[in-house]
TrEMBL record:
MF GO annotations: DNA binding
Organism whose genome encodes this protein: Duganella radicis
Any Pfam family the entry gives: HTH_31
Entry superkingdom: Bacteria
Signal peptide range: none
InterPro entries the record matches: Cro/C1-type_HTH, Lambda_DNA-bd_dom_sf, MLTR_LBD
Ranges of residues in domain HTH cro/C1-type: 9-81
Protein's UniProt name: Helix-turn-helix domain-containing protein
Amino acid sequence: MSTTTLGEFIRTHRERTTPASVGLPGGGRRRTPGLRREELAQLCDVSPTWLTWLEQGREVAASGKLLARMADVLHLTAAERSYLFSLAERLDPQHGEDDAEGGESLDAIVAAIDAPAYMLDRQWDAVAWNEHALALFGGWLDVEQAAPARPNLLRFMFRSPAARGLIVDWEDRAHRLVAEFRADIGKHAGEPLLAALIAELSQDSPEFKALWHSQDVVSREGGQRRFHHPRAGELVFNQVTLRLAQRHDFKLVMLLP
């Protein structure tokens, strides 16, 4: 965490926030027209000393809940709020609340790609996919997109017999996927949704459990992906993975000819 940059960012926006905008009187002598440190501390329910240390760049822990309160008090824009949580290396409690609003745009992105393409979130749930992907991954994506449980890539890989028949060199791909997943989620592995998924897969699949406990980590790379499709036969693609600029926890995976 870049504590110095985080502290500078908070201090600058504190000094830009007028007392009137948060319901405080603006009278008295002030060094700046913005909030005093003591006022922001009171509004965020923390001690002035703690806030001073945070602004000075000391190693103090700021929870996601506290940062969310601070973002609201300082009237941060969506981009500023995202930047705040990025600097603090914390997950925004509002994470995922706008998924429904952005669902149509995600569908439009993958639908415009003339090759199998799908979008994964942090849990590696598929949040969008196109018809090409559905035709390739029928055993994984053949669910209603409005279903309560989204199709999960790791559940498919380790719990579906169809995956073992579809994916060439299943053992090698399974090992790499788990290592990529560990690298992908990083310090977020303890968050409730991810911890529950890891526990579920560890219980259901001895292979996943062994691979997870191996502590192997690799970067998510592209490269050749081979499939033995039950109807189309042998298929070979070049995988390209990109992250969304507005949602760094979302990944666009394309399987190009």
